[in-house]
Amino acid sequence: MQVLIIGIVIGTVYAALALGFSLIWGAARIINLAYTSFYMLAAYFFYVFCSLLGLNILLAIPLSILITTFIGVATYKFCLERIRAHEFVVILVSIALAFFFEECVLSVFGYHYHRVPPLVHGYQELFGVRVLNQYFLAFGFCIALILGLWLFLSKSRTGIAIRATSQDKEVVNLMGISEKKVSLVAIFIGIGFVTISSVVVSPIYVVEPSMWMHPIIMILAIVVLGGLGSLKGSLIAAYILAFSEVAVVNWLPMGDFIKGAVSLLVMVIVLSLRPEGIFGVAFEEERL
Amino acid sequence: MRYFLWRLYRSFEGEVFDIPGRMIGFAGIILLLSAGLVISDPHLIKMLTFAAIFALFAASWDLLFFAGQLSLGHGAFFGAGAYTSAILSLKGGLPIAITIPLGAFTGVIMGVILAIPALRLRGPYLAIVTLAFPVILQGIVFIFPDLTGGELGLYGLTPISDSALVIYYFCLIVMLICVAVIWKLTDTGSRIIRSGIILYAIREDEISARDSGINTVKYKILAFGLSGFFGGIAGGLYAHTMVVVGPSTLSFLFSIYPLIWTIFGGAATIYGPVIGTFILYLLSSQLLAIVPEIRMAIFTAIIIVMILFMPEGISRWTRDKLEITCPRCKIINMRNHKVCRVCDAPLHLEKASSS
Known about the structure:
The structure holds two protein chains of two kinds. Chain A is mainly alpha-helical.
């Protein structure tokens, strides 16, 4: 039962993170491995504003979200945009950026683990399992984010432009949509996603400089497992991987060490059977 | 004898001294070979040894990249080689002459296993699947702590030699030979070894390569196996130089490092990763001595800025600045020459037409 509930919550969080990532991947065509370092940065800003400066929580949340999103968009504008044509160089630069942020945080705060205050206290009894209220909040927030993104992408003009860009960049330019602007909007939304979920999730985990590494591996696995560009696939893949992770941690001895290994093994097996992901479409190679 | 030497000198003059890129490479090899005699600082020698090992590791990554297969899990080969050498050396008591080749053999097996899912995948899918392998191996290491030492790793291996200088020369020469072999295997102009041009074709357009009658499956498995072989050698050398093998050799970081070094140096060139590794590894170790607290921050900042200015890698950038290919006979010339050194064709055509 505990596995089920925590799996659902963590799966939802992963789903929100993965959706933001695949949005960036689809619209801007960059594999931004620095993506989850904004998750880490937002948690640290939240920690600084809340615990060190003693600001009100309601003020600290929007501040940390805004600052981190601004940093994220700025790194895209100044670093990643000009090398977008070189696919592998983007991977390298985004990894370097992630390490850069990690080291900056490390030199300021050190290796210590920090705790941020939970937004809501207490717990509820649910089917005989004690669940922290923070889990409910994280679940609610991420569900709201996912629904909001879905509405945005299917109803608004900008959302439709983003979907069109992820399908065909050249034709979008021909239709009079500025592909650059669309990419920027997608980056903004994607990084906004990761910072918002960071603020609601960080009270559950500890805040540390290398907290970005596990999520980015999981996100990559989720996005690929679900099939590139398929939001539905990402959602389902997020739950599959989250359940396998939580189950391994709870049921197997030494589960904490091998949780990543088992969920990635699941991914490798699924991809060997279906190379284009669960809901992905096997499209032809792009030719230049 | 004198005639032979004279011929050697003449061929050197044409093939090396007239081409600045090769001149730099030649000078670099001479410099590395003489470094052990000039440098007395044992710390620097140790750093150079590790740089040589990692250069081989990065070159093996580049071999795979040359075939168009982007691997984010190269630590799997390195770790497999390192762990095999360590286990054989510790539990089996075998000498280094056996453990390192067997480590390389494990690397080949890992490469072939990795090739099974990789044959059907491409692009980002492939990258993510390869990313999974070191993590899975790390899980296996944690499951069998009796054999692998678990989280602490294995320590107390036989070192290659007692003298740091001998270790340096051993690693350097192994690295130079292996890189030369990789370079020859990926030589697109070679008439004898065909793998270079075939792997290049697979990278550029796999479907066309298959349609031209190339057995792409065979050559992709070959690329994975060879890459695993050289990665395994690097892992074995690392195990016996470091004397300790821990699960950190399988971490995400170890899979990312060859990517950083190679793309910094110049991807799909084979000599690029070697240059990139030596520059970056020595730079980071020097930064460690000067500014220990913020060295990684400065290091990554330097990488980002350099890459933004030369996205093709440092070796390609330098070559483009120094060399120009003759438009008529395709022979490499220095950029400051006006006419080709062989066929006297004007080199800078755009300039000539505008004036």
